[in-house]
Design a protein that fits this description.
mainly alpha; single chain
């Protein structure tokens, strides 16, 4: 148990040193904040995507035809 406490204290000290560094700390904190916000937005969007009902075959076929690169002039 003592080794775990030492490990946690060392990790907390390393994080504090990393984020509170007078030269790079502000940039690191901003970058971390932006990455966390982006991940949260992506996670929120993923939940909405999974909740969709499956599209009918006709709708899927039309989406494939409308996708870039699927125009009749490009097929050989």
């Amino acid at each position: 148990m003592r080794a775990f406490s030492i490990l946690v204290a060392a990790a907390a000290g390393a994080l504090a040193t990393y984020f509170l560094d007078p030269e790079q700390g502000r940039r690191r904190r901003a970058e971390t904040r932006d990455r966390l916000a982006s991940g949260m937005r992506r996670a929120a969007g993923t939940g909405q995507t999974l909740a969709r009902e499956p599209a009918p075959d006709e709708v899927l076929a039309e989406r494939v035809r409308a996708a870039p690169g699927n125009s009749p002039g490009l097929q050989g």
